Amino acid sequence: MSPAEYWHWRELAACRGMESELFYAPDGERGATKRRRERAAKAVCAACPVRRPCLAHALASQERYGVWGGLSERERAALLVSGRSLQDLQRLAG
Which of 34, 40, 44, 93 has CB 3.0 to 4.6 Å from 55, enough for a Cys bridge? Predict the structure, then answer.
């Protein structure tokens, strides 16, 4: 697979062109403010046609920050430590 094919899903992402601040927490963000921002980001992901490849990328590359494929960094970390295979995790992504 060529690099262009590998990244093609990004061109179709619902978040394309949106402000990254919705998906990445600013320094010191906590509590209700963080939960509200993550819910808004996840709402974008929920309607995204490329949610699965986005999440697969985040899991495979162990993206440490942000909402990817509808999951927060904490949710992705929990899945990774659960010992499930990438295929299992992709099925969970929908």
Answer: 93
The SS3 assignment for 64 reads coil
Give the Cα separation of 62 and 47 in Å (integer): 23
**49: amino acid identity, one letter:** P
Cα-Cα-Cα-Cα torsion 25, 26, 31, 37, nearest 10 degrees, comes to -50
| Residue 14: count of CB within 10 angstroms of its CB | 16
Please compute, for residue 50, the number of CA atoms within 13 A of its CA located in the half-sphere on the CB side.
15
Cα angle value 45/10/65 (rounded, 5°): 60
